[in-house]
Specification:
By secondary structure, the chain is mostly helical. The chain has a domain at about 1-90. The chain has helices spanning about 1-20, 25-45, 55-65, 75-85, 85-105, 110-125, and strands spanning about 45-50, 50-55. Strands 1-2 form a two-stranded antiparallel ribbon. α2 (about 25-45) runs parallel beside α6. The protein is globular and about 50 Å long.
Length: about 130
Amino acid sequence: MMKIEHAIHNEDACNYLYQSGEYNDWVVTTAFYSAMHYVQNELFPIEIYDETYENFNIYYASRYNHLIDKPSKHQVTIELVKNRLSNCSRFYRWLFDECYTARYNNYHVSLDTANLAMRYLRNIKAHLNKI
């Protein structure tokens, strides 16, 4: 399954970067993208109102592509995690927010933030069944 392989690949990169002691912005970024693939793997296939969606891209296209003012794929994933994986929600949202900050606002990320990103990724994984 592609999502789980992608999650593991990103987590391996995250661990490598973390152990290097450099590039904490990329530690946070790879932790988030690993978490994203782990939660999407957990959520899909998903059944909503007697319709089954095999993966996130099919779900998003079917439910949102027709909208003019559609939410981002990240926002849709955040909502799915909040509604279906509530034990992971605050960790996932924090990783998303910190990744966004690291990528677009300030790439100077502290070791404390990198440590928390690693911990939150572990916390998310601890709440999933399909890993």
